[in-house]
Amino acid sequence: MRRSGHALDWEIKPLPFKIYPVIEPLRLPTDLPALTIDTFAALAPDLPSASVPPLDLHGLAALLFFSAGVTRVKTYPGGAQVHFRAAASTGALYQTEAYVVAGDVAGLAAGVYHFNPGDFGLRRLRTGDFRGAVALAAADEAVAAQPASIVLSAIYWRNTWKYQARGYRHLFWDSGTLLAQLLGAARALGLPARLVTGFVDVEMDALLGLDAQKEAALVVVPVGAAGRPAPPSPLVTALAPEVIPLSSREVDYPLLREALRDSRLDSEAEVEDWRERGRDQTTPRHETGAEGLIALPAPSGEAGRSLADTIARRGSTREFSGEAIGAEALSSALYHATRGFPADVPAGQVDLYIAIHAVDGIEPGAYFYDRAWHRLLRLRAGDLRNDSAFLCLEQPLGGRSSATVFFLADLTAALDRWGNRGYRLVNLEAGLIGGRLYLGAYGQRFGASGLTFYDRDVVAFFSPHAAGKDAVFVTALGRSLKRG
Fold this sequence. Notes:
Helix 2 packs across helix 5 (167-188) and helix 5 (167-188) packs across helix 14. The model has no long low-confidence stretch (mean pLDDT 94). By secondary structure, this protein is α+β, with helices and mostly antiparallel strands. Helices cover 31% and strands 20% of the residues.
């Protein structure tokens, strides 16, 4: 890393928004429903048994705002601005884009839309009900009966400008953190929502009019109560709308595009086979012995902040104070972040390892989190702040936190089970759990930050328990340093 000649070229920093210059926007309503539900309640994997309200334009606007909207703007000396979004993104680069395939949304004509958080508007790319096209690409008939689907994509250059080909992982981390808030907002509104990770990539990209050399669809989220199936979809014709270039010049990273290409599914039959083969296999669980096990306090049922308030206050902590958080606070954040989520593939692809620095009632050291039994397995005792900071690319945040959570996965097992698309699933799940840790932290009035890391050193640090796994993601938790 130190020998790399890569430097940020500020002259070609990408624009933060995708702009269609000739398509008029439909302004979304700003009098949004109040998400008064407690943050932890919003993280529950299932909806309570109650009647489901219809999805209307106000509800759709809330889903988009609380997951992908602009929550504040910071202006720096010289006039440069950063439009901070509802969900965290690596380097505040926000390469994740959101599209809506609407068919039965009250107040919104059927069509395919792009969401621009900059002006909080939708731009219609296609007219007509294309839910059937999404269902066909996903080999999932139920998608056509739900009122709309939100499709997340990623524009590579927005992230590779800083992170180069390693941005491939960031595409899924960032869409995962956004999904944590999208699913939470849907639950707060009483709307069913689930993830669809398997689909025919070329068909989904074509429906949205994406240039696969620059942008690709990553995940589909059908939302709303099932109703009558959509009518047959109109023909998906070629679509190439004019888009303003993000930079005067872009640098291509072929490795990222090759990784996406090699993880594509090419037909509906392949999607069905991929999904069924994966479901037939069980997720391997790491058996833990009795020695060194530590029971965590019972998790709290309430964070103390509503989901809307948590999202409004959420940021990425830039400096931790090093102060302790309570064991119940850590227990609650871990528990509510790892209860699973509705999807076409089972959760449980990643394991959580924790470097605990300052948690009241828990001895500092390295631990494995046994999510099934909600307990810790001590791997090593002692003050590990310096080690943890080093593992996080020598960033002090990793050591000044109260606890730093490292996500690891058995990639061999994931690839055997899900093929090359398994790498997407592992990083997506890590990002989603990391996003929920953000919400659990800010909901309890402390902070969080996502970090990058030295891959092999993370595995070595938590071995022999972590032997054979790969490092995937890191989220640090702790109290922010307050300055005057």
